[in-house]
Target: Cytochrome bd-I ubiquinol oxidase subunit 1 apoprotein
Amino acid sequence: MSTAHYLWIKKKEAVYLDVTKAWSKGVAIFFATGAVSGTVLSFELGLLWPRFMEHAGPIFGMPFSLEGTAFFIEAIALGFYLYGWNRFHPWFHWLTGVVVGITGLLSGILVVAANSWMNSPSGFDFVNGQYLNIDPMKAMFNAAWFSQALHMCVAAFVSTGFAVAGVHALMILKGKNVNFHSKAFRIAAIFATVAACLQPLSGDISAKDVAKRQPAKLAAMEAHFHTEKGAPLIVGGIPDTATQTVNYALKIPKLLSFMATNDFNAEVKGLDSFPKIDHPPILVTHFAFQIMVGLGMAMLGLALLYFIALFKKKSWSESRWLLKLFVIATPLGYLALEAGWTVTEVGRQPWIIYGVMRTADAVTPMPGIAYSFYLFTAVYISLAVIVSFLLFRQIKMVNTLYDSSTDHKTR
Model:
């Protein structure tokens, strides 16, 4: 949105103003939904996980408090942005949109900092079941926060970029308001493809961090049953927990050892190094990891094709086959994102605070709590349906309001 706005100020081409205003409505829809879903999440934590919040709240409460501050700044900036047209200086108005983006990104980083603390608990001493000497700053900037926040932020640009680019690519293929959708597609596609190229690098940083702090999670991700030196990287395959083998997999010799430690002959711990009671769900973790990596590689491949189209094969940039690939890629970023969060959360099990508190000890111990879970699930499903409807309606309105054949001054 801010990029389109910047291009409008610099070039004074009406189509960029149209794109900016269209995307600003999408931002407003997601902001309103985020306010509702975030409020529900607060109640969910208290009702479903009271024992967890009783102990963890005073330790990792700071990033949540700061996230609330970032959210309010975002709300104020968004209000200025949505209602500031023709009221503020153009560059100040543009700046309020940039603040919306920065504070939204900061909110995500702070929430991920809280989650990373669950994977890498720090900032306290655990003595005889008591949490003592609490240091909220150390808890917030724990060993995992940078790698997780980096990976998640890049994933957000990948998933959103490909989703937006895919919608505009579909409209171009249908021949609807081609000039408008072509400009929007190019902006979204550049964000998506650059992020897709950066994501494997952030993934490597994250994987090395997991190998160091949560070797059982890494073993489940890779279906690595036996501790060995020069461990192979397993691509695909179906783990058999009974025989502790992986069927139908492609094994690349010594690559897992190198990716985990930068040493081809280093030892990588397998699941046999940990008590069975501490094993994560192997099938779910492995399949989710394979889905995340596979989709990430597919989007990386599409990104490379797009760069070739931009710099080498200009004729490709307007080809229908390339646009069709972007349409196919529309949901891939979000599917990869969800698969990644499955790896993070399921792979941490059976711990809710890694090595400190088990998930079974954190949940509400009262009967009938399942109904609260069903209620929260219904709320989020309802929000998903509402957002989908609003976005679908917005896309239809875009083709009506911002028709390239209409004189911009009359709109």
Observations:
- Residues 404-411 have pLDDT under 50 and may be disordered.
- The radius of gyration is 24 Å.
- The chain has 14 helices and eight strands.
